[in-house]
């Protein structure tokens, strides 16, 4: 019997049709990639909207990259791991976690790379992304978490959050983190100490995001409690949302990267700290064809030039393996 295209589906039924996890379905709904609606407290998706999503994602043009001369810089130990024949991951289970727009570009390249594939995205922040990697829910996590004790990015967190798991940390890009303020910086904001001023209202990122960790680490070093900061519990889930809130007059100060601030009118950016944005992959997965394709793409001139053309990213170390835990 034919199924009515207006048939209402649960998120689990959508996941079964697309052969993805239910959490990925919720991510797609959250991004408005799939139309949805609520019946009481329940989320529903019409079958016709699932078909529309499938057809929409087929209409992607192939990039004209040439990967024939690209290379990968790896350690001897990692080279040995890549030569082993581990069990391949399920065809539909390859997920990259992270929120930066350049990951969308990476996924586009992956789809048309000779040994690549169409991969799924999870839009988690840094901390939750690594936890999902530990739990096996994603195959690649991204992070930009600053450790105030060592001054390092990502490596200390990976060592603590992946107990018993050997991982490879690969440099993606460098980005400038700083403060978002209204045009002209009317409150005269200069440094981290301004977060404790009684005349300043901030807007914060969600727990687990790299920007939130950066703020909390600096506050810890200054012995400043978040509960004493105006607006500390006002959270947004993206850099753009932070910038938009400040531009509308909803707050005076927020933390985010330079690139996002340039996309919102009415915002000035105060550079504070250069950060490292990295990929984290389990060493057991390093010989998977899609992982090899990622490494090769990161080393390609075409991909680097596209990212440089966007502006706001340092690609000088892109593709370099900076640590193995």
From TrEMBL:
The keyword DNA-binding applies. Residues 9-56 form the Helix-turn-helix domain. Transmembrane segments: none annotated. Keywords: DNA-binding. The keyword Acyltransferase does not apply. Residues 116-299 form the PBP domain. One of its GO terms (molecular function) is DNA binding. It comes from the Bacteria. InterPro entries: HTH_17, PBP_domain, SinI_DNA-bd. It holds the Pfam family PBP_like. This is DNA-binding protein, excisionase family. The lineage of its organism: Bacteria, Bacillati, Bacillota, Clostridia, Eubacteriales.
